[in-house]
From TrEMBL:
InterPro entries: Aminoacid_DH-like_N_sf, NAD(P)-bd_dom_sf, THF_DH/CycHdrlase, THF_DH/CycHdrlase_cat_dom, THF_DH/CycHdrlase_CS, THF_DH/CycHdrlase_NAD-bd_dom. GO terms for cellular component: cytosol. Catalyzes the oxidation of 5,10-methylenetetrahydrofolate to 5,10-methenyltetrahydrofolate and then the hydrolysis of 5,10-methenyltetrahydrofolate to 10-formyltetrahydrofolate. The keyword Amino-acid biosynthesis applies. Residues 6-121 form the Tetrahydrofolate dehydrogenase/cyclohydrolase catalytic domain. Pathway: One-carbon metabolism; tetrahydrofolate interconversion. GO terms for biological process: L-histidine biosynthetic process; methionine biosynthetic process; purine nucleotide biosynthetic process; tetrahydrofolate interconversion. Keywords: Amino-acid biosynthesis, Histidine biosynthesis, Hydrolase, Methionine biosynthesis, Multifunctional enzyme, NADP, One-carbon metabolism, Oxidoreductase, Purine biosynthesis. Residues 140-284 form the Tetrahydrofolate dehydrogenase/cyclohydrolase NAD(P)-binding domain. This is Bifunctional protein FolD. It catalyses: (6R)-5,10-methylene-5,6,7,8-tetrahydrofolate + NADP(+) = (6R)-5,10-methenyltetrahydrofolate + NADPH; (6R)-5,10-methenyltetrahydrofolate + H2O = (6R)-10-formyltetrahydrofolate + H(+).
C-alpha cells in the first residue's frame, strides 16, 4: 500500500480562493471589508516571517491588514491598552497576538484581553469553553484546518475511531473536541499513555501533535488509516538541516491509506484558516450568513 498524499498546499490555496471570493462579494454587496490586526512583540525571527506571510495573504484575500510591531521591552500594560483599542475598532474583525511573548508578559492575561468575538486564534477561555460544550465558537486555526482536510477526504467522519496524540491547548484538546463534534469516537493519547502503539493502531484517523520528530512509526498505524501530521521539527540529517513531522513519513506511507506531508501538509492550512476565521468573525459581527465550508 502507498498512502494517498493529502496536499495541504493545494487545499489551502482553495480555502484562500473561497475566502477571497466571499470577501469580494461582501465588498460589492455590503460595502464591508474584513480586517485582521496582528500584533508582534519583539524580534523573534520565526515570528517575524510568520507575521509577514500573514500580512501578505491577508491583503491578497482582499482584507484589510493592520500590523502592530512593538519592541520587546514594551510594558504589558501598553500591550493591553493596544488590545483595548483594537477591540473597540469597528474596522478590525480579527485580532491575533503572535506568540511567544517576551518573558515579562503573561500570555494568558493578554489572550484573554482580546474580545472573544475577535479572537481568530480561538485561544480565549470563552471560546475554549464554547467549543468544549458544542456551541458556536472561534476555533483554533490548525485543528480547523485538519478537520477541513479530513472532511474533504472522508466525507462523513461519523462513527470513525480517532486518536489524537498530544494534549496541548492549541492543537490536541481542540482537535479532539472537533472530532467529537463530527461524531467520531475519540481517544486522546499522550506521554503517559500505556502501550501507545496499541492505542494508535486502533485509529481510523490518527492525528500526531506532540512535537517529537518521527515519533509515530509504521508499526503504530492501522493499515489504511488516515494520518494527519501536525508536527514540524527541525533536525540535522546527513549534515543537513531539514524539516520533519511527528510521523516517520517514509515508513508510515507504506501502511496508511492517506497522509499529510511535512512540509506542505497541515502547515499551509493554518494561515488559510486564520483568514477564514477573520471572514467568519466579520460576518457574525454584521449579522450576515457565515461562509459555507469554512467553519467547524
Amino acid at each position: 500500500m502507498t498512502a494517498q498524499v493529502i496536499d495541504g498546499k493545494a487545499f489551502a490555496a482553495d480555502v484562500r480562493a473561497r475566502v477571497a471570493a466571499h470577501v469580494a462579494r461582501l465588498g460589492e454587496e455590503q460595502g464591508i471589508v474584513p480586517g485582521l490586526a496582528v500584533v508582534l512583540v519583539g524580534e523573534d525571527p520565526a515570528s517575524q516571517v510568520y507575521v509577514r506571510n500573514k500580512g501578505v495573504q491577508t491583503r491578497e484575500a482582499g482584507m484589510a491588514s493592520f500590523e502592530h510591531k512593538l519592541p520587546a521591552e514594551t510594558a504589558e500594560a501598553d500591550l493591553l491598552a493596544l488590545i483595548a483599542e483594537l477591540n473597540a475598532d469597528p474596522k478590525v474583525h480579527g485580532i491575533l497576538v503572535q506568540l511567544p511573548l517576551p518573558a515579562h508578559m503573561n500570555a494568558d492575561l493578554v489572550i484573554n484581553a482580546i474580545d472573544p468575538a475577535k479572537d481568530v486564534d480561538g485561544f480565549h477561555i470563552s471560546n475554549v469553553g464554547l467549543l468544549g460544550t458544542g456551541q458556536k465558537a472561534m476555533v483554533p486555526c490548525t485543528p480547523l484546518g485538519c478537520l477541513m482536510m479530513l472532511r474533504a477526504h472522508h466525507g462523513s467522519l461519523s462513527g470513525l475511531s480517532a486518536v489524537v496524540v498530544g494534549r496541548s491547548n492549541i492543537v490536541g484538546k481542540p482537535m479532539a473536541q472537533l472530532l467529537l463534534g463530527d461524531s467520531c469516537t475519540v481517544t486522546i493519547a499522550h506521554s503517559r499513555t500505556r502501550d501507545l502503539a496499541a492505542v494508535c493502531r486502533g485509529a481510523d484517523i490518527l492525528v500526531a501533535a506532540v512535537g517529537r520528530p518521527e515519533m509515530i512509526t509504521a508499526d503504530m498505524v492501522k493499515p489504511g488509516a488516515t494520518v494527519i501530521d501536525v508536527g514540524i521539527n527541525r533536525i540535522e540529517r546527513d549534515g543537513k538541516a531539514r524539516l520533519v513531522g511527528d510521523v516517520d513519513y517514509a515508513g508510515v506511507s507504506a501502511v496508511a491509506g492517506a497522509i499529510t506531508p511535512v512540509p506542505g501538509g497541515v502547515g499551509p492550512m493554518t494561515i488559510a484558516c486564520l483568514l477564514a476565521n477573520t471572514l467568519t468573525a466579520c460576518c457574525r459581527a454584521n449579522g450576515l450568513p457565515e461562509p459555507e465550508g469554512l467553519t467547524a
